[in-house]
Amino acid sequence: MAGRRFFLIILCISIFGLSAQAVAASFPLIVQIPPAASITPIATTLGGTVVDSIPGADTYLVNVPFLPSPGTVSLLGIQWMELNKSVTLPRFGIRGVVQVPASTAADWYKNQPSMQLIKAGSARSYSTGSGVVVADINSNLDYAHPALVGHLTSGYDFVATRPPGSWIAIPGPG
Length: 174
Known about the structure:
Blueprint: H1 2-24, E1 27-32, H2 39-45, E2 49-54, E3 59-64, H3 70-76, E4 80-83, H4 113-117, H5 120-123
Antiparallel strand pairs: 1-3, 1-4, 2-3
C-alpha cells in the first residue's frame, strides 16, 4: 500500500512539475508575417498563443514553448522574428537640455566630462577639427531644425544607394 502511495505521489509531482516547467519555458516572440497570411495557423503550428498585435502592421506578440528553427520559420512564411526582451538603460541618464548663458564661449562643450574621458584636450594641440567633414551614415536628420540649419548637408545615401533628395514612399494606413 505504501508503495502505491509513493508511486502516485511521484506521478503527481512529475505531471504537475512538467506542466509548470512548460509554462516557465515560454518564449515571447515578436513576429511579422506577410499581409495575406493569418497568424492563427502559425501560432497553432508552433504550439503557441497570440498575446497581442500591432494593428495594420502584420506584427504579433506570440508566446511559444520553443524557438523555431530557421527552416520552420521559412516554411511558415514568417518574414522576421525576434525575442521580446527588455533592455537596460545606460549607466548615465539624460538629465535635460543644457542651457548656457549667451556670454558663454561657443566652444564650451570641449570641457564636458565626456570629452575629458576620451582625452579630446590632448588632441586639440594637433587639430581643432576646423574644415573637417563628418559623415553621419544611416540616419534621418531634420535639416530644418534651428540648431542644425547651415551646419549640415545631405549627400549620397550609401545604405539605400540613392542620390540626395530621393525618397521612398512608405504606405500609410488605409
